[in-house]
Each structure stands twice: as structure tokens, then as C-alpha cells.
Amino acid sequence: MGLDLFSPVAPVRLNILLLPVGKIKRSRFLSFAARLQTEKLVRLGDISPDERPNRNMFTPLAFPNGLILYNISFSVPPTSHLELFPFEIFREPLVVIAIADGAELQHDEDAEKETIAKRSSGVDIPPNPSGLEDLTQELSWVKEQNPRALVNQLLIFDYDDLEKSISGPDGVIWVPAPQFSRPTTIKTVLCDITSLLLGEMDGFAKLMQSIPAIDSPKASSWGPRRGPELRPRPIDKLMHRMTMPAQFPVSNGDSQSATSSGRSSPAPGSHDSPTTFDEITRSIQVSNRSATGTQSKESSRDRMSIQGLSAADRTKNRIKGRLGVVVGTLYLQTGRWPDALKELVEAATMARASSDYLWHGKALESILLCLLMFGWAGMDFQVPQICYPVAEKSSSKSSHSTPVHSVTDVVGSGQSAAGNRLISLQNLTNLLPDLCNNILHLYNRAAVITDEPLPPLVFSETVIRLSRLLCAIRLRSGTLDDNALRHIVMNETLVPSHTEWPRGAPVLKKNDIANFLFRAMPLSLGVELPITDAAPILVGISSVLSILDLPRKKALVLRELVLLMVPGLVEARKIGAAEIGIHPAAGLSTLSEAAFEINALDVGRGDMGESTRALLTMIGEIYGVQPSIYQEHKKSEVSSRPSTAKGSGMNEKEYDSIASIIERAFRHVTLDGYGDLGLKIAILRVSINLCEALPDFEGVLQYTVELLQTIRGHLMLPELGRKPPILSPDEQVRLLNTIKRTVGAAHKLGATHLESEYWDDFLVRGVTLLEFPEFKRLFRRTRKDLSIASVADEKSKKDPFLYNAFAKTDYKTSEALMIAKEFASFKVTLQNPYDFELEIESLQLQGDNTTLDARAYDIIVPPLSLYDVMIPAIINEVGALNITGCTIKVRYCRSRTFPIFQSPWKPTPEVKLKRTGLAAKNPLSERPLSWSSTTSKDGKVLPKVGPETHTCSVKVIHPQPSVVVHSTSLSQSAMMLLEGETRTFDITLHNVSSCAVGFIFFTFQDSTTRQLQNALSNKDLLPAEIYELDLQLSSKPPLHWVRHGSKPNDVTIEAGEKATFTIEVFGKPGLQDATVQIDYCHLGDKQDSIPETFYTRQLSIPITVTVNASVEVARCDLVPLSGDISFFNNQTKNSSVSSQVDKVYSSPLLANHTAQITSTLSHLSSDSHCLAVLDLRNAWPNPLSVALDVYREKDQDETWVTVKGTIQPGQISRFILVLPRIFLDNPHAAIPILHSVRRQFVVSANKLTFEAEAATREAFWFREELLRRVRGTWHEESTGREGSVDFRSIRFTPRMVDAMRLEDLEITFSLSFSDDQESVAQVKSSKYSAKTNGFLELNVEIENRSSRPVHPLLRLQPGLCNQPSTIALDLSKRLAWTGTLQRALPVVPGGDKIVASLGLIFFCRGEYEIGASVEEVRLMKPTTGSKDTSHISRDTDEIFIPDTFAADGGARKRRIWHARDHCVIAAYD
After folding, report:
1. Are residues 845 and 823 in the same domain?
2. Average pLDDT, the chain
């Protein structure tokens, strides 16, 4: 450690230089120096006076309470500083202590025995080892090298068997080891050395008094004395600052003054060439200066005239005053403060009288220090009158006399009263600002008037020292209290005071102190001051600005410091490279630390690099530069050098964590809007240049990364509108090459661990799993999809609503799937927001499954792009896999893990501006929160919405087989068939994997399904049309898998085996193409334990199908039949009926029918039937045999009646079928809705009336009954083809409905004689013959087929046949009846019958007819149960909406039924 030149009391301290001699280790020397540095204060009362005569000028007895402050260091002061002697004596080391290690001395056994014997007798004999003579010779060499040192002492530490301090021989002091030393041992040694120094100081002062003249210091700096031409010339122009007092150029004295200066003081040892780092850099600066001109004359001094003083008197007073300043300074350093104050006041008075402004200012500065020492020591004092600015104006002819009354008597025996001391301190405080300005004013006047400018180094240091005084007063609220004085003198911590300023005290503002401080700035850095002198000045200015809390001004000064250091370091590196024999332009890898070793006792180079980076980082923080990983690790206090320390792994994990990345993202956004971008880029470039000049590899990498982070355009690149970085592409490439060159040089030097930090935290923008190839793609299946779940389970899981958006069947997997032990591919999206290519050495996916192996190498990311990289991956364990990031090794950068940031993120801009200045880069909070936090109105901490990380979730399933289609039985995957025909073909599958196939399921897609689905999407369809399309879609699929074997559901294909499957194809109209989809997988268990959800692979086999027409229904009609045919059949079967009756009354049409009609009619029974006429057309070019089956019910057994025929090609044949008439209990029931179409609200697009809707429903249900009772097949004899006939193209008309329908109430007649003596002949089903004048009984049977009870009202209407109504109803003389023709009958329950009788008598012959009608008397409530409910859907769960058809038709009305046939009676005589 060296002398603190910026300490306010630096001129008070005595400088002691420590030098190692002999054989001594660095650590031992530093430990010995540390023991000496613990004692910095020596009280004069503890010092023994020098016993030599005439050595009492600085005797300690004159002021025992005085204190001497020592500055003990082992730094040799620069030669330029020594040239300031005797103006500033404190720079010269007046004491040189040579330190030797006693443990390294060899013991002389004979001398040791003699020494021990003398010590035992009570005589202190110093040791006399064999190496002592060498040490004394080195001490002599030290004296020769330091001729200005007054005391040269050799201290030998830790000599063996030494228990106390011993002096001897001359100039040698033996210091025992710490375990043998007392607490006062080192202090005693310093007191002995101080005693010698005070004695030598007497002779030094007398020598100074004997000098004829003391010249002022020259403004020139030190340079190598290679010739008189290198002496710098004076600068004859004054340079001014706009906001600061003027600074003046330096000038050299002429040869005469130089010679007199050389005679008046000892000259430093001269040398021919620079040998140290200081000399190298100083010689560079000197060589760059202009060196012409001579000393200008003292024109200003000649212009000055002082009243009452001649030139000789002024010269005499000037010499006497300068000598008084020197002597007063010596008194000040030796602790004789009263004598110093007296001498300095007299010297200041004489200097003022002689217009010696330079020494006048120096005297005032020393007086100020003397007063501060009085205050610090707790003594009373009075401020001399010479210090007040008023004294400057009071000048008289006798001003050259010594004003003894201005010197204050100081009590030297002890402390003074506290009240007087406080008053004196406050007076000094009030005077201090004016005194400081006065001192600088005198220094400036010396340059302007007397042409004796103060050297810029001295002027700047004086300004900094005075500024620190003013800062101490300001921080202590305008007082010089004990804390402020201890801080000024002993450099203790200064605690800011928040008390009120004393009344009358001048208020010191920060800006005023800063303006005063900026006077210390050199006018031209590197020209009037060498770098080694200018750099400490700038550092001192920045330290004072730091105390004043002016960071931006401090950053400005430090930036100037960096700009000053870069060219000097570059030049020094060239000189150092030349000295070690390499080319100056060689790279960093050729330089070694030895070429720039400054001092073996200084701090190591590693610490120097850290301190330099700390300085540059501090500048960058003020300018708002983006911090890097090095600063993050520095703050963590775990490892100061994360790139080199093994223990930095934890820091790197914290730096790579998501929380840290989000924190840096918010900080980047905040700092991006703070400060000037051009200044940030400029300071980072300067930082890079400085680190390259040192050279500091880590610094170059750090600030290059920070510069790349500062210039970036986007944190996350968008898809469109990408903003490039601020710098040009060439400059960005240059920065990348800087990183490459630095890392390469470090590796060549052996620092293989040194790598850069990657500059983009959002490198990974997405990770997605790519789908498998088409033949290996996985599909998600459920048991319900494959129709494996039971019917009960299906019903229990149905939703109560018709529409459910989540019930859509999606067979493709929406989740990412991987198969264990099978390769898959991931797509990793990388971003590069810069204009240079990014080289990635390796990339590896990171997940929570350790068996995942997914990596790629040698990836090139294009400039300013989002680039997709395909990564092959394989995993061995089954389960869930979450991929959270990628471990990426960018070339020349550290390998680190990057999280996945898939969604672009932009910060929310601040609506209101609440922070300005330096506070704008802090988090938006009154409390010290993190960058990613903010506060709400109620004070609660609310997290900001930062970048969201993405996790790629993958489900890993068991190994699955791979199956290929080996062969098919189809030629060219095509087949032809007829409508209604069913054919089969075989598919052979081959398992090419090592995993067995445990589950196979076939699904099919065809063209008819697509056509029907498109038709169903039409919203204008009627319910009957929807039902028809849905039925075709769900029944009889075109393709079907035919299972064989005893266990059709147990289908497996072993590894490497083959299996054949049969597919059945049904000829459906519109079938053109189809696709066979084969789903297969490996479940590991039997079918009974199939999971609810599983995954299959799928094979698709497309086939082309041609369906030709076969048998088509050209026309269909239903013809009603009367009951005569049934009556005729009964007559032929009953042998009791005579053939005559048959021959006479049978229908004449029967004789003309063909055999087909005869056979058909022979099946008619007493039940009512209708006749179906079908016209079938053969569209196939070959004859087809057709067989039609009609369903009949006979004796409660189901029978089918078959009608066969052959249809020639292109011909139409008519088939007549006898169908029973059908009764439907509810023909107006709602048309059912099947599974495939579920509509929440069915709104008919066609506005049908109630009658039209009723007719539509009635036609629908009777058509369904017809199709249920009729089926047809065809057969081709030549080829053996066969198929079915589709009757669903038949459309019903109302006439066909009437022909097939049975009414709810059936009215039948029967006639008989009342006395049963004669029988009535029944000619037809409703025609009878009877004799006239006979009592007949007409029975009317009413049958209720419905499930609802009916309360009937019977009306009978007799009349004549084939007569007009006027004649037909005139029955009074022709017919008589007993009872009433209109009567109310009892209620007829559902399914029951009732008979009503009427007595008849015919009076004349003829044909009579009796009609009947039944009307409901009143409406009856329906009863449960029904005879025929087959037309209602069995699955009642499908009817979700209640049918409102009856409500739409209005109120129910009473119904009327009429007899189908009138009862005809032929009366004869």
C-alpha cells in the first residue's frame, strides 16, 4: 500500500518506506510490514530526546502532547513526485526501513554461546549471526539509493532465541517474534526510530536554512533525461473551461533556475532508460509532447509594485517566507503544532507581503492542516487573522513585519476547555469554504501574475483534499465534530448526520462542492499530466463524487479515466512486447503475465482484473448497461470468478433458473428504456478495449456479451416484423469474432475452462413432438368406439341433452405420444436475433425421464431467424415425459440449459411516468422488491405477467408392433358386384416387428357413407327423409369384417408371422370406392381386459368398387279387396255348400285369372287383405330369378309365403302379393330419430298443415309395416350370383294407406230368422237372400281394435238399392222394423266387441240395403296397453322431446266410423 495523496491530512504524515533485504519470502515480508503498519501514531511524550548536542530544534520535550502520523508503505514514490521537494516534503520518504527475516540467518555457534553467556550476566548483547554483514552491506546500498532519507534502519524480525527488542550494531534493531513480543514492542521500535529522525531533522532544517534560495516547483513532469531536447517547452496559451475556473499550462524554468534547483536539493538518481511500468508510460507521454521554447520572462511580476518595498526587500521576504513554510511544514510533520502554526503564520504574512502567491497559498493550506490537528487532538485554538479573506485587503507599508499578535498561544500541557474548542471549530467551519477558495485563488494568481504555475498534479491533489474536507463538513450537517475530525485524520467511517445546520454556518450544496471539485480536472488528459498521474486524479475526483452521491458525474469522470487508460496500456503493451522479443501486433495468446508484472509486493493480477471489471461494471450500471452473468455471480457471494471456480456450479444453476431468466427479462426491458443507447454502446466498447489492452480475457467476454445484449432488437423474435439489432451486421460479426479470438487465446494459454456466457436467454422457442409416419401413426381409441362396451354401459353414459360438443368422435390423438424403445423425432425451434450465424456444437433435450436420449450436433442457425431443428429421440421407460428445456453448447460459450419460451412476450408499458433520473432503472415499488414484482394500490405485492415457459408433455406407451400388408385376393384392388349382392375378399397381414399383435379391429370408409352424411347435413329435410337416410347409413354397411374360428374376438399375430382376414362387401347403390382401415396394437392382455383408452396403429387399404344395377322396383301399388273372395274360399272348402250356389253367385272375374292369381287368392282367409302389385325390372344383361317372401300370421305362427318368377334382361315383370290389412293403434306417432342424427330442436323447414303432417306420419308407419312384411331375393343361374331386392324405394300414397289400413272400429252385419226355422242364404260376405213376410233379426257387431274405450252411438239407415234417395227412403209399405234405428250402446273397451240386434220384416220383394255408422257419444280416457305397438321404437331412450302433434291439431273431437260394406238383403216371395 502507498501514500494516500488525497487524504486531507496527507501533508501532515511522515512517509516511511519499507524495503526487503536479504533472503526473505513475500508472505513473511508482508506479515512483518503488517506488524509495523498497526502503529501509525507516535506521541511526542513517548519519544526519548536525542542525546546529541545541537539536535534540539525538533525536541519532543517542547510539546509532549504532539502526535506524529506515519504513513508506512512499501511503495516507492514516482520520481516526478520527488521533484516537488521541498514544496511538498511529505512525498519524500524520510525514513527507509530495511526488513530482514531473522529465521533465514545462520547461527554462529561460538558467537551464540558468547552472547548467551553475556545475556545471563544481565548485559543485552545483540546477536551476531553469520549473515549479518551481508544485511549491513545491503543497508548501505539502500542508503545510496535513497540519498534524501534522513534515517535508514535495518529491522530483523523473528530471530531465534530472542525474547525482547535489542538494538545493535549501528542501524540494526532486532524485533522478537509475536509470541515473545509485548503490546508495546513495535511502538517502542517506532519511538526509537522517531527519536533518530527528530535528531536528523535538526540538521535537515539547518541545511534548508543555509540554502540561498528556494525555488518554486516546476510545472514540468518527470521524463527520461536522455538529452536537453526532451525537456518540455512552456505553453504560452491559457486554456479555459466553460463552467470551471481556468487551469493553466505547465512551464519549465530556464537552465539557470534548473541548475539552482539542482544545487539546492539532492537530485534523484538519474538513469538512461525507463525500467518500470511507471517510467514506460511516463516516457510515452513525454515523447508525445511538444518540446520547444524557453522560459518566458516574469512580465507580470515586473508589473507588480508594492508600496514601501524595493525589489531587494521583496526578494528577501520571499526567501524568508518560503523557508518559513518549509520549516513550518517540518514542525507540522513532527507534531510540533504550536511552533508550526507560528512559523506558518509568519511565512504566510511575508509571502503575502512579497506577492509570493504560490507559497502564500501553501502556507494557508498548512495552517488549515495545523488547525485541524489541534481540533482532532482536542486542543483549543484560534483561527489566525491571516486566514480570513479580509486580511487580503488590509495592506500597509509595514506589512512586511511579522504580525506576532496573529499567532494564537496554544496550551501545550493538556486539553483546553470544551466550550472554547467548539467555538473555534465552528469558526473554522464557517471560514473553511472561503479559505479553500482563497487557497485556489492564490494558486491561480501565481500562474497568471508571477508566472510560477503550480504543477497540475499538486493543484489537482490540493483541490481533491479540500473537497473531501468540505464533504465531511456537509455530511456532518455543517460542523467539524469529533466524527468528522476522526474521519479526516484517521480515515474512520463517516456517519451522516441529519441534524439542523448551525446558525450562521454556510450551507454547502452538493453541486457547489462538485463545481469546486471539478477544478481538479486536468485540462488536457495525457498531455500536461502523464497517465500515471492523471489516472489517480480522476479516481480521486470520482471518489469524492461518490461521497456526494452524484453517480452520473462520477460515471462521466470514470469514463474519461477509461478513455485515458486504453491508449496508454496499448503503448505499454507494445513496449513490453518489444522487450520480451515478440512483435507488438501479436495476439493475446503470445503475452504472459511476466511482461506486465508491476511489483512483486502488489496485489496479484487476478485481483487486478477483478477490480478493473468492478470499475467498468460500476460505470455501466450508472449508464444502464445490461448486466451479465459475472455481475450475478459477484452478487451471490459464493464465488467471485464463476468461469474458473469449481464451486460455481450452484451459481450457474441459479443463473439458468426460470426465475432468474424472468428477472433478467424485466430488467432488460426496464434498462432498455433507461439512458441513452449510444452512450451505453460507447462505454461498452471502451470497456472491451480496456480489457483487451490489459489483457483481461474474462473482461473482454463479459463486456462483449453485455454489448450484444444491449443492441438486440427483440427479446423474442416474432413471426413477422422482425427488428434487427442496432449495430450493423459487420460490427456484430466483429463482436462475435472477438469472443472467438479471446476464447481461443485463453485455451492456447491453458485456460481451457474459460468460455463465454451465451447472450440470449430465449434461445429455445419451442419443442414439439413430430407425428409418426403415416403407416406408424398412433390413434386414440376407446372401448365405446370399438363397440366393446355393453349396452347397459352405453345407456348409463348417455347425456341428457341431444347435442354434446364433446361427444364427437375423433380417432386421431391430440396428445403427444412416444413408443418405448422406438425412435421418434422432436422439432426444436431456435431463435437467433442477430445478423450472424450461430454455431451450436451440441443440443440435448432435458426431461424428467432419465432414459430419454435426444441430441444433435453441429447446428447452424441462420441470422435473424426462427430455425427448426429435427432431433431424433428414443426412450426406454413407459410413463409420462415432461420436456422442460434443452441443454445447448454454443461454440465458444458455456453449456447451459435453456427453458422453453413458446409464446411471444411483450411487457406491458407503464401508463404513468412515476420515475425519472436514476430512479427510472429501479423496480416500480417503494419497497426494495425484485425486478419481476410490482405493488397494487393496497400495497399488496402482485407479480407481473412475465414470459411463460412451456413444457412439452409426452405420453410414453408400451412397445407397439409394426404390420404391413403382405397381399390381397383382389386383382388391382378393385371388384365388381350387383346391387344387393354380397362378396368377400382376403387380406394377408405380416408382422415385421419383434412385438406381437394382440388386438386387431377393422373399420371402413366408403363413398356411400360420405354421400349420406352430406345429405344429412341439409337442414331442409323432413323427419321421414332424415330417418330414411339415417337408416341407410346405420344398417347394412357396405363392408364388413367376417370373423372365423371358435374365438372370433381373439385375433393375434405373433412377431414375424402372417395372418389372413376376410372382408365382406355388400353391393349398395352409389358405392364407388372404399377404404379398409385396420387398427392394431399390443395390449398385453386378453380382450376382456381392454382398457377404456388405448392407442392403435392403422393400415389403410383403398379399393375400387363398381356396383351395377340388378333388380329394381319400377312400380308398386296396393289394391283393396272385398270380402267376397274370402267368402268364396270358405265356400269351396265347405262341402255342405252346393256347387250351384257357387256357380251362380261367385265372381265372374275369377274364371279369367291366371294360375298365379288363383294360387294367391287361395291364401285369403276370413281376415281382410289387400293386394300388392309390384313391377320389377331386370337391369342386368342376364336373366334373374326373383323370389318374393310375404310374411303371414296364421294360427299365431309366423309363416312366409313365397312368390317366384324369372325376369328377362331389360324386361319388367309384375308380381301380385296378398298382404293382410294392418291395424295401427297410433298411426300418428312421431317419426323416430336414430343415433347418428341428434338435434336439440327439430324445426321443420316445410310448414305443413296438421292434415298434411298426419298423412305423412300415417304413410311412414304403414310403409314401415309393408317393408317389414315383404322381402325379396334374386339369383343368377349362370354365374351363381345372388342378392337381395331393395324395396325402400317404394313411396306410399294416401290411397295405398287406405287400402292397407284397418279402422279402429269394425262394423259387420249378420242376418237370420228369429225363430230359427228357416235359414237365411248368404250369397256374399255382406249380401243375404231371405223370404218376404218372415221375421228376421239383423245383428250389428261393433269391434273396437284400439286400446282406447269407445262409447258408441249406433245409427242404422235402411233403404232400397239402386234407387234415388226420394224413393229409396220410402219404406213405409215395404219394410218394418222393431226398435229404434239410432241407439246408444254401452261403452266398448279396447279390443272388445258388442252386438246390437234389430227385428226386420219385408213386405215386398226387392233388394234392400242397410247402412250403419257409429259416433262417439263422449270422449273416453285411454287405458294402458295396446295390441299392436310394433311400429313404436323399442329404444324409448331415443325419444328425447315429447311429441306435440296432437296439441298442434287442436282439441280432440268425437269420431265417426261408417261400415265398410252395406248389408244387402235380397227379398223374394
Report:
1. yes
2. 78
